Amino acid sequence: MLTKLKVAFAFIIFLIGLEFIAYFLLSQKYPHLNRDNVFNLTYNALITPKALVYKCSWPQTIKAHPQLGFIQKSKNELSEDCRSSTNVNNVGIQSDRDFPNSKKSDEYSLLVVGGSVAQQFSEYRRNGEERYFEKMLNQSLIPPKGKKFVVYTGAMGAWGQPQQGKIVELFGKKFDAVISLEGHNEAFGLQTHLPFAGIEENLKKFSLQSSQSLMNQSLTFIIQLQRMLSDSHLKKSYFLVTNILAFQKMYHLFFLTKSSPPQHSRFEISKDKKNDLLNSIKNFHLMAQKLEIKSMTFLHPTRFMGKALTLNEKNYLDNVSAHSYLEAYRIYLQLKKEGWAIGDLTNVFQSHTEDLFGDHIHLKIDEEGHSKGNELVTEAIIKELHMAWKMPLK
Q: Which of 45, 70, 170, 265 has the smallest number of Cβ neighbours within 10 A?
């Protein structure tokens, strides 16, 4: 009996030791971390809730596309768990609004393109009402033609340049104007070992993985760990969260090596990569000009600049280095000085001290369905469009 007690006591001391070591390691890297926000390190505001609540992981919802890398599966192709939580339109975008067959005379159609930040922005509805961006456009500006603005989502999570130009090439003639909300995924593209033209090819290979592949089985295992923690007090365990982070790092190392971030804060980004991004942005606007539709690119807000971060906002993990982002930022500023239609939204949050980011890059939406961050971005974009496109105010 005494031996069993000694073993149990030794095991408890061992667990406490592991917890202390994990706390020491994490607190060195994240000095503001505490038990209430340690689980945030594993969190993605767009992907994690869906995976935990509906048991539907992001790779289960996408399929390969020859030009765009991947698109959303149709409803018939989705699993039962994913079908109940995923909207899909007629071109494979996660939206409940289909693309039109052609321009409509009674509306001014505006396409929003980019990655997951643009997708969240375009689809955001305050408290489940109509699309907030569309609502505020119609309340604030007089459209150049038609009776009203109608906003269409042409953005997908993980998309970035050059996909914005490609979706305009494929579908742009159906719309009157297009805006791109971007920056983070483009900075990520700078730090990969792939040319921008090859990024969608890498994503295509990722989307072709079967549900039984080692890649998807590994991701499912990570999600199951997150689900186990999220439903219990174990989510406050530094040791268990450290294990999830370790598994995520191994996942990147073995399956996404070509897209994994550098391990040091400063590294050389080749001139070719910078030119790739610069030319991709130009091509987006040149394609819009060719189709005779208006275009504008907006740099979305980021945690790297323009806001005094809260304790929660400081502790989200990022897959982009500050160095990569600043290099991308300089490219956008250069294009703006050259006269390209670039709007800088990185300072929109500068006077706000509350939580506006819900993870490393996506904007927070609270339990009531309200997102102050997305509403501030909406206000800023409308002001920019009023001046750049000379649209009169109401």
A: 265
Sorted by where each starts, the structural domains of the chain and their CATH numbers stand as 89-191+263-388 (3.40.50.1110)
How big is the CA angle at 367 (ends 362 and 371), to the nearest 5 degrees? Answer: 45
Integer angstrom CA distances of residue 166 from 113, 140, 242, 287: 10, 30, 39, 9
Considering only CA atoms, which of 56, 72, 370 is closest in space to residue 219?
A: 56
Rounded distance, CA 371 to CA 238, Å? Answer: 29
Give residue for tokens 């504008």: 296
How would you write the pLDDT of the chain (394 residues) with one tens digit per residue? 667 777 777 777 777 777 777 677 776 677 666 666 676 677 677 777 766 666 777 777 888 888 888 899 998 988 888 888 888 999 999 999 999 999 999 999 999 999 999 999 999 999 878 999 999 999 999 999 888 999 999 999 889 999 999 999 999 999 999 999 999 999 988 887 666 655 555 565 665 666 666 666 766 677 667 766 666 676 677 777 777 777 666 666 555 544 444 444 445 677 888 999 999 999 999 999 999 999 999 999 999 999 999 988 988 878 788 888 999 999 999 999 999 999 999 999 999 999 999 988 999 999 889 999 999 999 999 999 999 999 999 9
- Phi, psi (rounded to 5 degrees) for 393: -80, 150
Helix (H) or strand (E) holding 108: strand 107-114
Give the span between the Cα atoms of 315 and 38, in whole angstroms: 8
Does this model's pTM top 0.90? My answer is: no
Distances (CA, A) of 149 to 93, 129, 170: 20, 16, 22
Element of type H or E holding 110:
strand 107-114
**Residues 114 and 155 sit within 8 Å (Cβ to Cβ):** yes
3-state secondary structure (DSSP) of residue 64: strand
